[in-house]
Protein 1
Amino acid sequence: MELNAFIIFIAAIFTSNILLTNFLGMCSFLSVSKEVESSIGLGMAVVFVMTITSAINYVVYHYILVPLDIIYLQYIIFIIVIAAFVQLTEMVMERFSPILYYSLGIFLPLITVNCAILGVSLFMIIRNYSFIQSVAYGAGSGLGWLLAILALAGIRQRIKEKYVPTGLVGAGLSLIITGIMALAFVGFSGIVVIQ
């Protein structure tokens, strides 16, 4: 039975959240989640890049790599597509939102090596998704990543004012919060499985 694209979209946000179930894309997630504003900006950039690159990588894989029998180049080609789109996103953001561009700093170009984006492209190939399913999975995974980084940023801003033991300040507390959020998302796991 083929899954509906809407079900894949919802599952990618909640039950199969790319960050909280596969723990892909953790580096920028932990680094940028100190403030809600910068988290929204990076999250939206990830949603945009993940959605568009999943569509392009689907087309490249099925209409170029498979017919030419050069599937072994898929990692390199997928990364090139992702890098090109991140560069485009970076140029647009610098032009239209320089404040956000400078607040994200080095983490904006690092979207290129965000393993969550490459993971989405590889998962859609492994799971034999159609084009519509691939785009839905890419968009849902991006929104799931955005939801997770917003939740962590909001919690970190609230905790900033509270007493936190010295050993937990920074990454330690963020990893504990992420683990608790991942446990909360496990509660959605019985709804639908796309893995």
Note: The mean pLDDT is 87.
Protein 2
Amino acid sequence: MEQILIVEDDRGLNRGLCKALKGEDRQLVSCLDLKTARLQLLCGGISLVLLDINLPDGSGLELLREIKTDYSDLPVILLTANDTDMDIVEGLEQGADDYMTKPFSLPVLRARVNTQLRKRWAARQREVIQIDHFRFDFGNMAFSVGEAKVELSKTEQKLLHLLVANRGRIMSRGDLVDRIWTDGADYVDENALSVTVKRLRDKLNAHEYIRTVYGLGYSWVMKHE
């Protein structure tokens, strides 16, 4: 589940952005000021930030700098009425991934949001994740538990990446099925996900890490944080 944080004090525009960007696999988190936005970031799970610059309790550029320091891979798109070349250059130099001036086209905004989310997903697929005695190198498809190498199927790799990229959060069965079996098949056997989870647990000996949340889905549980 992708989460987009919208930080915009114009209530009408904020509601419009939430409506324009909503989707079945996407959650919109709405904020009107910097204080609330900071609290939402601390909760974790944010995939992208849409950030106004002129906010009632300060400049969005302050929050942009904080995000790029504490969450360096989190994309930020600035939304602002400040439309001079100097304003745009300043925003980009502060670390913004994109910059849109008001008024803007909602279809163009959706396209830019989708582009940033695809970039982030592609970058995460190339990353190496080290968790306790597990090492997952998704770019080179090399996986190990301690000193032992583990061979995973493509489907198992997709499942593993979704779980560890969202570790600590519950991934619903429906979301996992939709994002793992993306070959256009009209029907996926209900048991396919359960079988894949069992095989992954057994291969990694990760029974204490891959937890079934009955009635909801699955979660990679952090054991030693």
Note: The first strand starts at residue 2 and ends at 7.
Protein 3
Amino acid sequence: MGANAKYKRVLLKMSGEALLGDRQFGISPKYVRYLAGEIKKVRDLGVEIAIVIGGGNFMRGAAVAEHGIERATADYMGMLAMVINALALQSQLESLGVPTRVQSAITIAEVAEPYIRRRAIHHLERKNVVIFAAGTGNPFFTSDTAAALRAAEIGADVILMGKNAVDGVYDADPKTTKGAKKFEELTHRDVLEKQLGVMDATAAALAADRKTPIIVFDLSQADALLRSVQGERVGTLVHS
């Protein structure tokens, strides 16, 4: 591992909206290539990196369920959106020479490996980037929960919550509330008790139980991901 990397193994959580770029729907290939370049910088330090991506750039199960589709079915549809995003990121990473494996929590053998914990760890040890697709594979659980769960399973040193044009955790939405206060540090208890929206309650409780630190930062800022891995103060740090 590079001498200037603070963490050996990290779990990067990105929302599906992170792949939008300047689009309103779907995937921006140009922006996904930018994201792949940011991830490559971290991998080039010798850091083992796993990724969980949401599917909100295509659809959210909870939102679709409001329009008459059964919630469990809607959530499975959302998992397929996560697989699409994982494949897009894999393609861009590999075009930059970064070996990447997609492991899916639902069986989709033609395009992805099944999720197997020991195989995922083996890939990471070989310095392959591993993208965990399809959430936990269960309806009613978010991609945030998948990130906290996979981080615990692979023994990640930190969860990096890459936001889209939001550089940390605030006491109100900075996009709509003038003068919203940014937190430099929080405890896991703060996140749960104040319901700050860092991640859903199930994910936050799991991270708190495992005492896994979380760094919330703006992924659209060049080198922010790299700097967070190097231990610089970027965004908001959530710790025990």
Note: DSSP finds eight helices and eleven strands in the chain.
